[in-house]
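Q: How would the structure tokens look for this protein?
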Amino acid sequence: MAADAAIFVSKRLQRAAFAIVCLIAAQFVIASCQPEPSAMAARVSLGGN
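A: Here is the predicted structure in token form.
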């Protein structure tokens, strides 16, 4: 009986767990497409003002 209840709960939570995994994966993809400025980068002024 406990196993049946666990299977029922896991079936109900499968969609929510899959959605969370997809959101995390999408966040990684977006983060890899938009590089953050590195700490080593320096701004160079080309204008002589």
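The CA atoms of residues 36 and 42 lie 13 Å apart.

The mean pLDDT is 75.

Upvote if useful.
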